[in-house]
Amino acid sequence: MYTLQYFHVRGRAQPIRILLEDQDLNWEEKVVSPETWHQGDLKKTCVFGQLPALIKSDFIIFQSNTILRYLAREHDLYGKDKQEAALIDMVNDGVEDLRSKYVKLIYQTYDEEKEQYIKNLPNDLQHFECHLSKNNAGKGFIVGDKISFADYSFLDVLLNHLVLAPSCLQDFPLLKAYVERLSARPKIKSFLECDAHKSRPINWNHKQ
Question: Which residues span the domain enclosing 95?
Answer without folding.
Answer: 82-191
